[in-house]
Write a structure and sequence with these properties.
The complex is a heterotrimer of chains A (281), B (344) and C (347). By secondary structure, chain A is an alpha/beta fold. Chain A has a single domain (16-280), classed as Rossmann fold, CATH 3.40.50. Chain A has 9 helices and 12 strands. In chain A, a hairpin with a 2-residue loop joins strand 1 (16-25) and strand 2 (28-38). Chain A is globular and about 65 Å long. In chain A, 43% of the residues are buried. Chain B is mainly alpha-helical. Chain B has a two-stranded antiparallel ribbon. Chain B is globular, with a radius of gyration of 20 Å. Chain C is mostly helical and 347 residues long. Chain C is 76% helix and 0% strand. Classes of the chains: A alpha/beta (281), B mainly alpha (344), C mainly alpha (347). Chains in contact: A-C, B-C. Chains B and C meet through helix 6 and helix 13 of B and helix 7 and helix 14 of C. Chain B: Keywords: Cell membrane, Membrane, Transmembrane, Transmembrane helix, Transport.
Chain lengths: 281, 344, 347
């Protein structure tokens, strides 16, 4: 495969980079020798077929998965050199399909986001109260702050989890499939919150399985297949019929969204003949 | 493989037999006969196989005849019958709850039967014979468990946990009565707490000898309906089965069998789990291996009793302890196999 | 927490409950000093108690009552408080770390492991008095490790009931092994028979002293890990994301639970259900956050144990019931209630 430079535009120096990153489950390598730089202050979506390693990559970026080789740097410093709480003040992660103890309220959940900033002798401060309040406001949950999470809609619950990550006051936010199991309306709630956060200056990375949503809500798209990056860049530049075929083995027609200028997939259908024999590895 | 085993000459009736299940049952029967013979031969004084068989039919010297017919045969009968009854009850219960863990021992029925039986043994004022008390206890425990769980539920889990709670309460009650009883009475009642064939009540054995064949016939009549109930209520109804009635009958049989078996041997509950499991592995997975489970259960009980008597003679290890030490790791393996479905 | 405004008022006033429960516990302790299975009635006991506390000189009757209160009932009550608080806290910790509201040291085999270890030690010739506490703690540690290993098997961790079933089976297995040891060894059987059902009777003040180091260390651990443990309730990855180290937290919790359960079992025998009932009641009062339920579990567990001990003396006077029997009678309905109240997965 020809080597591509995945450097983001020069005006947005990257806070989070992967250098020659190799990640494995047991002895099976999932990600091989991967280089990646994420644009600051933008929404990045990592897309690809099931099992392509996108969630593993996200875990590697968040130091949840130790690399076999290579490293991840946060502002040019290896993330392995960060203390646990120090990293949690720089980078917030929302894993896939999280569950909270029954009866926990939204405000209680969001207060957990302050733990990286708290210490033994300073367990609650005026600053904490202010930040939690702001996080509630950002996620539009002020009216629901005392409602138990299990009495909320899926979209509200997911916004509460994101608000917890907001309360960590990090410049980076990593989301793993934040809209899984949400219906269209609830998914839109979450995506619009993500856009608002990016507009406020956060760098956001989310793993998505829906290419359409990725095109619509991401500034920067990282397309993966079999543990390697096959394309990266603005959706309008990198999403082509050939890419869609390479990723998912389907044919489609590409249109341009008249509102946003983002590519839109339509008339998606199974490819008639396999493009190459290696498509099933 | 199914094949038609018998057919009327005009083709109006025919019986389907599963080849693999038949082979499995023949194998189990063979093993059971061998284990039974060993159980008759081995003891504090070993008797040769020929002499044992002659003694069984009243030939040979008087001492051998007495040991074989009066001592060892009674014990063997108690083991065969109670083991078969436990396993058959387990198989019925697993099928109706659609969960392989839903056996009478785990859901508290054995403990209920034990508590009531112990109440009559230690003389707390209840005058009925242990088998009748065991039946009352088993029925009470079942009713409480069902009441608390509000039915069996889709996967039977709520039913099981309610049963664990009920079983724990009855177990505590048994401990309470044993702790309060005078010490020699408590020694009489001790086999009740772990399960042993050492003090099998002849009356209870006779009752079980009548009850088990009747229950086997009843279970045989239910077998086809139960095989459909395994999938789901909706499927079974679609196949024209009256699910509620089928469940009720199966439950009544399971309670009756458990109670009678507990009255003979005490709570040897793990047989109810292991017997059906062995039968399922040996025979095809298509049917509900009621008969095979009964054979396997009898085999386990006879072997466990034999091992318990011989392995550290003259100390006798109760059969209940043997099955618990062997069966519990097996049960843990079932429970903890990663990604494994437990539905029956 | 300081006086600074929280975003929402902590629910249901946990501090009020803590005060009320402590008052209830104090009352139960006084009752435990006054009532007994023997012939020393409440009135005489009260005079004996006053004689002991105020140093009043009194007649020979009061001296006898004072002996009963001071030397028999007071240590027993103190042990009840310690054992109950230890088991309550152990239950709360185990439930938090396994994320399973049904996880209970007695049900999951931790107490049974402890009992088996003591039975083995006595059968091998160890004297019951000296080694019992550390041996029981080691046994509890093995039980804890087994429980945690089981809860981390794929599929079991998300299925509270499968873990409880596995624990019930493990408890049964360990209980059978203990019974086997008792069969072989009459001396062990005599030393252990009444201990196995769980009781607070006939313990000496020296036995209490043997518990204090273990309980002290456990308390220190609990104070350190309460906050990270609360975050762990949200899931391992979330806790990592918040800057905690789940592995370290889990290890510390295991050690704390083993120390607590081992100490309690060493002195009182395996007592089930206190570790289920206390955190359950605490959650009802104060919500799911472990930082509140943990502290509430202490007085609730103690109250429960002392109450059960009083009942065990009074219900079948002049003899006594084993304590484990009473806690099982209280706890079994609570187990069912937990299953019915909660929307557990797989039900």
């Amino acid at each position: 495969m020809n080597h591509l430079a995945y450097d983001p535009p020069a005006d947005t120096p990257s806070p989070l980079r992967a250098h020659g990153l190799t990640l494995a489950h047991g002895r099976v390598p999932v990600i091989r020798d991967l280089d990646l730089a994420l644009p600051r202050g933008r929404v990045t979506a990592i897309v690809g077929p099931n099992g392509c390693g996108k969630s593993t990559l996200l875990a590697g970026l968040a130091r949840l998965h130790a690399p076999e080789a290579g490293r991840v740097t946060l502002d040019d410093r290896d993330i392995r050199d960060f203390g646990a709480r120090e990293l949690a003040r720089a980078l917030a992660l929302l894993p896939q399909s999280v569950t909270a103890p029954e009866g926990l309220t939204a405000a209680e959940l969001i207060r957990f986001g302050r733990q990286p900033h708290q210490g033994w002798l300073r367990q609650w401060s005026a600053e904490d109260a202010r930040v939690v309040k702001a996080a509630l406001a950002a996620a539009d949950l002020e009216a629901l702050s005392d409602r138990p999470l299990d009495a909320m809609s899926g979209g509200q619950r997911q916004r509460a989890w994101i608000a917890m990550a907001i309360a960590q006051q990090t410049s980076l936010l990593l989301l793993d499939e934040p809209t899984t199991a949400l219906d269209l309306g609830h998914a839109i709630e979450v995506f619009e919150l993500v856009r608002d956060l990016a507009a406020a200056g956060k760098t956001i990375v989310m793993v998505l399985h829906d290419l359409g949503n990725a095109c619509r809500y991401a500034d920067y798209l990282v397309a993966m297949r079999s543990g390697e990056i096959v394309a990266a860049g603005a959706p309008s530049e990198v999403v082509t019929r050939a890419l869609v075929h390479e990723l998912y083995g389907v044919d489609c027609t590409l249109l341009t969204d008249p509102g946003t200028g983002a590519p839109m997939l339509t008339n998606v259908r199974r490819a008639r003949a396999p493009k190459s024999a290696s498509a099933d590895t | 493989m199914w094949r038609i085993a018998a057919r009327g000459h005009d083709g109006r009736w025919s019986i389907l037999v599963d080849k693999r299940a038949t082979a499995a049952n023949l194998l189990l029967t063979g093993l059971l006969l061998a284990a039974s013979l060993a159980s008759l031969c081995l003891g504090s004084a070993s008797i040769g196989a020929t002499a044992a068989l002659r003694g069984l039919f009243g030939h040979g010297d008087a001492m051998t005849v007495f040991v074989i017919r009066e001592l060892r045969l009674t014990r063997l009968a108690a083991g065969l019958l109670s083991g078969a009854a436990f396993a058959l009850a387990g198989c019925l219960m697993q099928t109706l709850a659609r969960n392989r863990l839903a056996t009478p021992g785990i859901i508290g029925i054995d403990n209920g039967a034990t508590a009531f039986a112990v109440a009559s043994v230690v003389g707390t004022g209840f005058g009925l014979a242990p088998p009748a008390m065991a039946l009352a206890g088993a029925a009470t425990a079942t009713a409480i468990t069902f009441g608390l769980a509000g039915g069996v539920g889709t996967r039977g889990y709520r039913f099981i946990v309610a049963g664990i709670g009920v079983g724990a309460a009855f177990g505590a009650g048994t401990q309470l009565m044993l702790a309060r009883a005078p010490i020699d009475n408590a020694n009489t009642a001790y086999p009740w707490t772990v399960g042993s064939l050492n003090a099998a009540d002849p009356l209870a054995v006779e009752l079980l000898a009548v009850g088990l064949p009747a229950a086997l016939v009843g279970a045989g009549l239910l077998a086809r309906a139960l095989a459909a109930v395994r999938f789901s209520d909706a499927v079974a109804r679609g196949l024209g089965i009256r699910v509620g009635r089928c469940r009720l009958h199966a439950l009544a049989l399971a309670v009756l069998l458990s109670a009678l078996a507990v009255a003979v041997a005490g709570p040897v509950g793990l047989i109810a789990l292991m017997g059906p499991e062995i039968a399922r592995h040996l025979s095809s997975r298509r049917g509900v291996p009621l008969f095979g489970a009964a054979l396997a259960g009898a085999l386990i009980m006879v072997v466990a009793d034999l091992v318990g008597r011989r392995v550290l003679a003259p100390i006798e290890i109760p059969a209940g302890l043997i099955t618990s030490v062997v069966g519990a790791p097996f049960l843990l393996w079932i429970l903890l196999r990663p990604g494994h479905r437990i539905g029956a | 927490m300081t006086g600074l405004p929280l975003v929402s008022v902590p629910r249901n006033r946990p501090r009020l409950w803590l005060a009320l429960l402590s008052a209830g516990l104090a009352a139960a302790c006084v009752a435990s000093l006054l009532f007994g299975a023997g012939s020393t009635g409440p009135g005489a006991s009260l005079r004996g108690l006053l004689a002991w506390i105020a140093g009043l000189d009194a007649g020979p009757d009061d001296a006898r009552a004072r002996f009963v209160v001071e030397s028999l009932r007071a240590p027993r009550t103190l042990i009840g408080v310690l054992v109950g608080a230890a088991l309550g806290a152990a239950g709360a910790l185990l439930q938090a770390v396994t994320r399973n509201p049904l996880a209970e040291p007695g049900l999951l085999g931790v107490s049974a492991g402890s009992a088996l270890a003591v039975a083995i030690a006595i059968a091998l010739g160890a004297s019951a008095a000296t080694l019992r506490v550390p041996v029981a703690q080691l046994g509890a540690l093995a039980g804890c490790v087994a429980v945690l290993a089981a809860s981390r098997v794929r599929g079991v961790g998300d299925d509270p009931i499968r873990l409880v079933l596995a624990g019930a089976v493990l408890s049964g297995l360990l209980g059978s092994l203990t019974s086997m040891i008792l069969l072989f060894d009459e001396r062990t059987a005599d030393e252990i028979r009444f201990w196995v059902v769980g009781s607070l009777a006939g313990r000496r003040p020296a036995d209490i002293m043997a518990l204090l180091p273990g309980l002290g260390v456990a308390l220190a651990i609990v104070v350190v890990i309460a906050r990270p443990l609360a975050a762990l309730a949200l899931g391992e990855r979330v806790a990592t994301g918040l800057g905690h180290r789940p592995r370290t937290v889990r290890l510390l919790v295991i050690v704390a639970v083993a120390l607590l359960v081992g100490s309690a079992t060493a002195i009182a025998g395996p007592i089930a259900f206190v570790g289920l009932v206390a955190p359950f009641a605490a959650r009802l009062l104060a919500g799911p956050d472990i930082r509140r339920t943990l502290w509430l579990s202490l007085p609730i567990g103690a109250l429960l144990t002392v109450g059960a001990d009083i009942a065990s003396r009074l219900l079948v006077r002049p003899s006594e019931l084993p304590l484990g029997v009473l806690t099982a009678l209280v706890g079994a309905p609570v187990l069912v209630a937990v299953v019915r109240l909660r929307r557990l997965p797989g039900l």
